[in-house]
């Protein structure tokens, strides 16, 4: 009866005891958030729109995200670009728990792996002038540069070395050619990815090599041809060749085979040639190894292959050159036919257009040791180190004038060119079908001036020419002015260039008011337009 009497009391105490124990367990169990009434105390992570889990603080959410990103990146040797948009939503709760961080990290890794945008691998960018190519590793860079050098180094005596440019903020290397026999080896990439230059790398300099082979200044040079060591002394890149480490998508890399093709195959490069004293178009064509008609085609200032060129005139020439050039110095032995330099005798009484050969040349024969400089296949310099003449050459002797020849100007101001020099249809009965000069249509009474200074040899009526003026010039040439309305000079007068000599007209066999103008050389008419300034 007593047990039954207190049954309800005992049952209530039992329930309260269990509730008290459960509260204590929840209060002290790890992972449960204690209700403090201080605001948000549980935070839900969302990455790229996907729910990840609940953590204890926003700071911890960011830390877990960075840890997951680092793990995803470490799984690939390439540079990984991924999307990681983090959202944290906080709430205030009385009862609740943060999830196990390892499980949260695993879910983060899965979401990030599914959000990889692209990867970029470590590679090397080679820059030569404006040409840039990206290669997979430094070994490919070395092989590319050695392919350029190997075109001229059949024995494989030269390699590629890299030196660091301390003045650059970024780690950029400069590549050049090194002699293998002097300790030069290819550069390496040690752990950590930094480029470095192996000890003993030696860039062969022409001065050092010549001193080594032929003795220091002041010492006696070798006396016998056999004492000279023949072959390539020195090789280098005339352009600056830079190499930098970078990260790029694989799609932006160039294969080694394609890079070799781009860098070493000759391309058309436009250059300027400045005309020197004594140059002719034919000689320039030989110098630059370009056909003369091709030079005329590239230059608008050249009408044809007979166009007169002037000293200092600039001509466009196109020379095939590779993107990367290689300069080298060689010591070579030759047995050759040679010509002695031309000997000039200056005559101050002659014009520069007057020359006479006083002695014909005769080629000689000699043995030589020559130090030669080449850029690619083009020889740019030659110095004879030793010479033995077997048969002496006879020099060509030329007497030449030093006086600047007179110039010729258009005899009227304005006018319209109506008839050129050469074959034509006769404009009227009695007119010539082989035009000996040029005609400019101009109103009657237009001033006619002397094209060049000289002495008047004829002034008056000239049959088919109507009224004419002939002027003889100091260079032996003669100018003629026809179909004039009035002559203003007389025979024997000396006139200056540009001086008024007549008025234009329509006399003689003429089709209308105009001036007929001729230039004669050696008594024969030539095209005046080729001689007018």
In short:
The protein has 533 residues and is of the alpha+beta class. It has 9 helices and 30 strands. The protein folds into 6 domains: 1-30; 34-114, no CATH class; 122-216 and 226-264, no CATH class; 268-321, Membrane-bound Lytic Murein Transglycosylase D, Chain A, CATH 3.10.350; 333-372 and 385-403, Resuscitation-promoting factor rpfb (Resuscitation-promoting factor rpfb fold, Single Sheet), CATH 2.20.230.10; 416-530, Glucose Permease (Domain IIA) (Distorted Sandwich), CATH 2.70.70.
Layout of SSEs?
Blueprint: H1 2-5, H2 7-28, E1 42-47, E2 50-55, H3 58-74, E3 79-82, E4 86-91, H4 101-113, E5 116-128, E6 131-135, H5 138-150, E7 158-164, E8 172-179, H6 206-214, E9 231-236, E10 241-248, H7 256-264, E11 267-274, H8 281-288, H9 292-298, E12 314-321, E13 327-338, E14 343-351, E15 355-359, E16 364-375, E17 378-391, E18 397-403, E19 416-419, E20 422-423, E21 434-435, E22 438-441, E23 447-449, E24 454-461, E25 467-473, E26 478-487, E27 494-495, E28 500-504, E29 514-521, E30 524-526
Parallel strand pairs: 14-18
Antiparallel strand pairs: 1-2, 1-4, 3-5, 5-6, 5-10, 7-8, 8-10, 9-13, 11-12, 13-16, 15-18, 16-17, 19-22, 20-21, 22-29, 23-28, 24-25, 24-27, 25-26, 26-28, 26-29, 29-30
Helix pairs in contact: 3-4, 5-7
Defining traits:
ten-stranded antiparallel sheet; 6 domains; 19% helix; 533 residues; six-stranded antiparallel sheet; alpha+beta; single chain
